[in-house]
Structure formats: C-alpha cells, structure tokens
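Subject: sequence -> structure tokens, single chain

Hey, anyone have a minute? Need the predicted structure for the following. Not urgent.
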Amino acid sequence: MRGATHAKWAACAVAVALTATACGGGSDSGGGDGAGIVSSSWGDPQNPLEPANTNEVQGGKVLDMLFRGLKRYDPKTGEALDMVAQSIETTDQQNFTVTLKDGWKFSNDEPVTAQSFVDAWNYAADVRNKQNNSPFFSDIVGYEDVHPESGEPKSKTMKGLVVKDDKTFTVALKEKFSTWPDTLGYQAFSPLPKAFFTDHAGWLNKPVGNGPYTVDSYTKGTGMSLRKWDGYTGPDKAQNGGVDLKVYTDNNTAYTDLLAGNLDLVDDVPAQQLKNVKNDLGDRYINQPALIIQTLTFPLYDPAWGKAGMEKVRQGISRAINRPEITKQIFQDTRSPAKDWTSSALGEKGGYKDMCGDLCTYDPAAAKQLIQEGGGLPGGKMTITSNVDTGSHRVWMDAVCNSINNALGQGPVCTVNPVGTFADFRNQQSSFKLTGPFRSGWQGDYPLIQNFLEPLYYTGASSNYGKFSNADFDKLVDQANQESDTAAAIAKFQDAEKILAQQMPSIPLWYQNGSAGYSERLSDVALNQFSVPVYDQIKVG
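Reply:
Had a minute. Here:
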C-alpha cells in the first residue's frame, strides 16, 4: 500500500479550529462515558477517505478507526481474525462463501449486510470511479468487465460477486488464491452504507463507517476530530472519548509539543530526537519492529533508467550505499539494513530471507565496476527525490548521496530533490513525473509476503510507480498465489524476489521500526504490526 511515511504540520494554536478540542494535554472529555480525548500527530491524507481510494498511511489511520471489515489483523500477532465475518469457507481455494455475523450496523443506523460489501467492492473495481485500490479486486471473476484496460466498462458489477441473502454472499476468483481470506483485513475491502452512493459528496465531507469512531469535523491542513461511537457493537469498543488528529509538517514540532504537554501522542519520533527520547520519555517511548521497508525505486518508464543493461547501474548504486553506517549514525536502533524486498517483521516463517546478498552490501570497488559495465549514470549524474516534511528524509537522502559520491569518487554526481510535502511528492510519484530514483517506503497492508511483492512489482500493479514489468516475475507470483501449501507459496515468492535482485527495479535500504512517544496522561498505548497506534485501546487519565 501506501508509502510508509507521515506528513505533519501545525502547532497547538490550530486546535481552535476543531470542534470540542482541547490543546493536547488538557482534560477534555467526550464520548458517552466521559472518557478523555487523545490528541495525536497526523498528516493530511493524499486522497478523499474512501476505503478503496486510500493507499497511504495517514488516510489509513482514519479508516482504521472508522471501519471494520470481514477480517481484522490482531494488533499484537498480525493474525487475520474474523471481525464482521462469521465464516469464509471454500472447498477449492477459488470459490468462497462469506457469512456475516449478526448485529453489525453503520453509525447512521443502516445495517451492515452482504450487499454493503458487494456494492463497495463493485464500486472499488469500477474504472469510472478511479479508485487507487481497484487492483486489489482484480482476482474476482468479472473484474475486466468493470475495469477494462481501455474504453467504457461492459458492466457495473462483477459476476464473481453474488448476494445470497442479507448475511451471505459468494465470491468467485479467476484462479486459486489460498490466502485470499487473509487479505480481507485490508481497509480497501471495507463495507459501505447506502448513504455513500446516494449522497457521495456529503459522505466525503463526513465519512460514515461501522467502526468504533465517527468523524466530528475535519479542516484540511489543520486536523480531524473523531469521537467515540456509543452505538458500536464490535468487540473492540473505544476506551477513550475520541481522538484529535493534528496536522504537522515537521515531526520535530510535534515532538516539542509532546514534551510541552500540548500533544498526547507522536507516532513518528524524529531521528534528531532519538538520542534524547529515552531520557525524555522513559518507558513512554515505543520502539518495535514493523512491517515497513524503505527503498529507492527507479523510474523505469524513463528510457535513461529503463533501457537494457541499466540493471548493472542500478545494482552498482545499491552497492555504493553504506547501509550499516547510515542506519547506525542517523537512525540509531530504529532501522536495520535491508537484505530483501519484504520486511524482517514477517519472520522466516512468513518469508523473510536474505535475498539481496552482496548486492545490498557496501563495496565501492564493486559499485564502480558495475556502474561502468552498465554504461554509467544517465548523463553522468542522478537525483534522489523524497518529501522532507517528516521521517528525517532529507537527512538520510543527504547521507545516501554522500555515500554514493564517496564510493564513486567522481564528485557530487548524486544530489537530492527535496519535495516540501508528502502530498506533493505522492502526486509527482503517482503521475510518473520523476526522472530519477525516488523514495518508496512501503508499509504492509497485511502480514503476507505477497503484499510486499505483488502490489509494487507486478506488471500494472496499484503501487508499481517505477513501472517495472517482468513476465517471469508475474508468472511466479501467479503460481505462488495458487499454492494451497503455505511453504510452497513462500518459496515461489522468494523465487520471484531473485528476479528483483537480478533487475534491481528498486534498492532495498532498511527495515523501519515503529516508534512512538506519549504523554503521562495516556496508558495502554501500543503500536500494531503496521506501526499504527491502536487508538481504540488507549486510555486517558
């Protein structure tokens, strides 16, 4: 999914624009039980908060509070547990019967039915609705009818989705996909109320979901105010009165506000503060492995980078990056050098393995030789692009360029292109306007090796922003998805990773831990495997 990054902005003064909002450390209360409000750092989402249109972290945080899908990933283990689903059954790994639990409803009192899911999924897949996550539905029979490569759709619905009754629907996939049910905790598969379709503009202004919170107000560039929904019947009721998400463009400012008592929670401790954070916060500092990898992706749509032979140049650049030194000096113990294209948090059983080998090992002599064999840097130079509003991206970009320049010994051939905001960077990235390698951090949508490979590197995939295309890679991914045996599927995915090592469409940089700091007025603060705070379990006071 979304690049693992967080855009931030503002300070305590903007809080007056939010309804019923105290300035961080105050004793504001809300919700039916009078529980306190949590104030947390945030960044404006890139897109409207439609479940199938949100594929970045900031919007995902909100959807995680507003919606509950068929499955939900256990915050501690990552296991895909039934939530709205009573059962998801199959005898052939290709045709599934989904049965819903009783009692679920949306916050506008509409019942959550089988039609709520089928309508949402058909909307997501319809090419006319331009939903970023539409490829997540491409496994369903009839997807091409609603999402043709060109021209108008032949149908408004996918024939692979059939409503049997209010609590039951069936799903027919094009091929066997044994782990398909485990993907259904991703927010793109959320149900939608009828109000989404009958008053779409009104719904976008104030989204209505079936999760433990409702949207109270949202001012772009300032923040969003969410409040506990007393009518929520799920098992994970909010333990606080609500969450005020405050926009920051600099997470150093957010951290300063936290220390000053003007903010309760920062979920991205800036690199500049890592040397101080343990003294500042003690056991109120969280640092744990997360399903996040940072990479540099090459714009293979640009002939200068995508032509034959350039894979050696791309490999050479990877060998010119001193990952251990950068992760130690800049990130201390919150990053670790990447050895593959997935995440160390998957563990060996989940598919994590050193698949990059020497190509991710710093060796200036080897770097120079590979780049020379590949014909040299395009025009003799390269530029790295990233947003710089958070994540210490400017700091590590400078360090990566310094490492490359030192290794090659040809002067400042590597330079940085800092983009002011995450939204601007994402817009350039998603419109394929970048002409040099760019940051492409990935936060897993679900804890499967498939999610770190298919959405980013499969031909035409939803987050394949470098436009990498390799028929052998695609074939191996297809075969892996059809395996009913998990170990066999993982082995196939790892075979696909070998092709990434050969072609180097992106350079693995480092695995990222989830980090957070919180105020003394909070308790039961935790991050899930995706490094997102488990907001509904936080207690105030």
